Amino acid sequence: MAEVVREPLLIFDGDCALCTAWVAWAKRHPGAARSSGGWEAVAYQFADLTSLDDRAGGWGVVTASRVQHGPLWLTPPGEVHGGVQAVARLLMRAGGVWSYAGGLLALPPVGLLVRTLTLPVIRRWHPTRTGGAP
């Protein structure tokens, strides 16, 4: 049975301590609950990725290997945003000052800069997925 996406869905790597902590923070953030709509999060290990990929057009963009390299934000119409753009979409959904931070992060030059600056941190937290030292 196909998974129905009623709210935007954040698909993340449940094995990554950084991803799991970040999602837990986002769920606790009060603005996220008061936003113009809700959102859901699921570790890819517990999601029907084939069904979610079909929802996104069946192009093979919702895969375990892609989620292991960064979160995915799947919208109800089937748009997929990955990595920094997924984080930006979640922040914009949170409302308040976080929506401004998300909007700024969504700008390509800012997103590229943030990705470049945070790569060492990501490698430290998630070494097996990004080629860093264990």
Helix content: 40-55%
N-to-C CA distance = 38 Å
Cα shape: globular
Low-confidence stretches: 130-134
Biggest sheet overview: 4 strands, mixed
Number of helices: 8
Q: Which strand order does the major sheet show?
A: 2-1-3-4
Tell me the total number of β-strands: 4
Strand content: 5-15%
The tally of domains stands at: 1
Whole-angstrom Rg: 14 Å
The pLDDT mean sits at: 82
> How would you classify the helix and strand content by structural class?
alpha+beta
Helix-strand pattern, N to C?
Answer: EHHEHHEEHHHH
InterPro entries: DCC1-like
Pfam family, one: DCC1-like
Protein name: DUF393 domain-containing protein
Organism: Kitasatospora indigofera
Key structural traits:
single chain, 134 residues, alpha+beta, four-stranded mixed β-sheet, 4 strands, globular, DCC1-like, DUF393 domain-containing protein, protein-disulfide reductase activity
Question: What can you see in these coordinates?
Answer:
The protein has 134 residues and is an alpha+beta fold. The chain has one domain (9-126). The protein is 53% helix and 10% strand. It is built from 8 helices and 4 strands, in the order E-H-H-E-H-H-E-E-H-H-H-H. It has helices spanning 17-28, 30-33, 49-55, 64-67, 84-94, 96-106, 108-125, 127-130, and strands at 9-12, 40-43, 72-74, 80-82. It has a 4-stranded mixed β-sheet, covered by helices on one side. Strand 3 (72-74) and strand 4 (80-82) form a beta hairpin. Helix 5 packs antiparallel against helix 6. The longest helix has 18 residues, at 108-125. It is globular and about 35 Å long. Mean pLDDT is 82; it is low at 130-134.
